[in-house]
Amino acid sequence: MALEKELYDIEQGFWLDGKDHFLKHVDRQCLLAFPQAGEMHGVHSREEVAATATNANRWRDLRMGDRQLLDNDEDFAIISYRAEVTRADGEPYAALVSSAYVRRPDGWQLAFHQHSPI
User: Fold this and answer.
1) Confidence (pTM)
2) Alpha carbon 12 to chain centroid distance?
3) Pairing relation of β-strands 76-86 and 92-104?
4) Which segments of the chain have a pLDDT < 70?
5) Cα dihedral angle (88, 16, 39, 90), rounded to 10 degrees?
């Protein structure tokens, strides 16, 4: 249960916190899969991903439901959940989200992140 809480706390920070959180918790490279037009897709550096965490596009009112954890290895874990959140422009957004984490010497790092809008 401790691992699940740790990963979901990190994940929440990607929605609500800023650039420093991204720089601390995104792996050297991260594969992003966003189906929306104009969103990042593909392999990106930690710095490229962190640059997207501006005040102008932060989220609020995050609810993470139907939480799942796949933990078959000490150094790799996947979480999946339903996110309901409000965009910075006030529009509601809902998606099924999956994130894969790898354990590095300095902690868990995001290596993959995907949205499937509902």
Assistant:
1) 0.92
2) 7
3) antiparallel
4) 1, 37-39
5) -20
